[in-house]
């Protein structure tokens, strides 16, 4: 399911189910533990059956309760299981106390400080902290995990984290570690989370190689990527239950029988002599993703070099801001993309003023954003609901210095949401976890995690291509900016994964036809 929950939203789901008598906390815990064992064996089939060795580290709360369930179930399968706990059992919840007692019928609970003795196990289970983490985890927990991994023996100690890697702030994705701990001190091979993934699983740096969501019998909210996400719920951008073609078919401008003008006419403003590559990349991406027509407007001095490089993309001379007004008077233009390669300064600010004032679908990137570093409010005063900003963290910090990553006291999702509210535009804040936020509170994330990594996107021009893809998706002027930006971000990563290592930005637009075929379009 593509909904990503906060810790509070998860607790509310559990409490609602328990309050209306649908299930008890103990039953939820038992289902969680059972699901975790099943997911572990699915991930590592060689651990099926008995005769294996596990160490389970249990925390003071209900995450620890899950751990006791896992320990008992592994012992029932014939595993050798060692359990080490922390905290005063009398302070634990009744459910966690019950599960600890059921485990104690199978074996003892040792002190965390003793976890380093013995041979290295096949499996280390991190049941220390889950969604209830309130502050940096104690150093003793980091030490215990390291001690188990450091045990002597030839076995590869695989690590499974219950609900989340301990230390993960499930709302922001930040790791709350004690001073001096390595950022990956608690990293796992597999995280098994319950009912739904949490926001923190898809923000920041992924803390485990893979993530499995196991069902514990709670109701799921329906989510349709063809509709805007419900306010307050963070959507993970993916086809979900829909076939990719059903989802993308609703957002791509290419409809059966559509005339090229129905598919939109995108105008891309390009840079001057020798600075035309960014604009051409954006223009090609807009045409490839489905715009009916694309025109590249460049200064007279750059006409020749662009003409030599363009065929289906039309070219027009733009004599500075004055010339732009004349071009914008063409009502057939349905979307304008500007920023890449334009240069930072007053000329670019004037072009942004003219484009935004024309009240069309608009995508602003790079220099169109950085040109307002001295006066972000001057930019915000120009924007409207059909504008999409596509900053990377550096450009974002120039427009929203109080929300910059280095000083961010809120999550990346909340920072983007505040930026969208403040600017009145949809904000796509780039990164391996690209967050899209709209002024009405809709928020989505496209995370290239857990097997969707696309490190090759760290190449010159990849952002220009994304700008063009989003402009092409908004090309017909009717598209919802949030849904267009979401689909653009998702396709951008998929195109990069389709091309793979050796990718340069020129490959991305031309990968789209093959990618669309592979998606059944
Ligand atoms: N609710 C249910 O029925 C189910 C929950 N599941 C599992 O439960 C956890 C959430 O459990 P919860 O008890 O809310 O929280 P945690 O187990 O994550 O830990 C909270 C306890 O740990 C203490 N704590 C918090 N931070 C620290 C810290 N940095 N150092 C030491 N101790 C800490 C906290 O005590 P306080 O001091 O903060 O009062 C709590 O005692 C969820 O993740 C699931 O794994 C089941 O899966 C489903 C049913
Ligand atoms: K955990």
TrEMBL record:
CDD domains: YXKO-related (cd01171)
Reaction catalysed by this enzyme: (6R)-NADHX = (6S)-NADHX; (6R)-NADPHX = (6S)-NADPHX; (6S)-NADPHX + ADP = AMP + phosphate + NADPH + H(+); (6S)-NADHX + ADP = AMP + phosphate + NADH + H(+)
Domain named YjeF N-terminal: residues: 10-224
Keyword tags: ATP-binding, Isomerase, Lyase, Metal-binding, Multifunctional enzyme, NAD, NADP, Nucleotide-binding, Potassium
Pfam families to which the protein is assigned, alphabetical: Carb_kinase, YjeF_N
Binding sites annotated in the UniProt record for K(+): 63, 126, 166
Ranges where the YjeF C-terminal domain occurs: 243-519
Chain residues that bind AMP: 430-434, 463
Keyword hit for Lyase: yes
Enzyme Commission number(s) from the entry: 4.2.1.136, 5.1.99.6
GO BP field: metabolite repair; nicotinamide nucleotide metabolic process
A GO molecular-function annotation: metal ion binding
Positions bound to (6S)-NADPHX: 62-66, 130-136, 163, 278, 341, 392, 464
Quaternary structure, from the entry: Homotetramer.
Function of the protein: Catalyzes the dehydration of the S-form of NAD(P)HX at the expense of ADP, which is converted to AMP. Together with NAD(P)HX epimerase, which catalyzes the epimerization of the S- and R-forms, the enzyme allows the repair of both epimers of NAD(P)HX, a damaged form of NAD(P)H that is a result of enzymatic or heat-dependent hydration.
Protein name as it appears in the record: Bifunctional NAD(P)H-hydrate repair enzyme
Organism per entry: Pelagovum pacificum
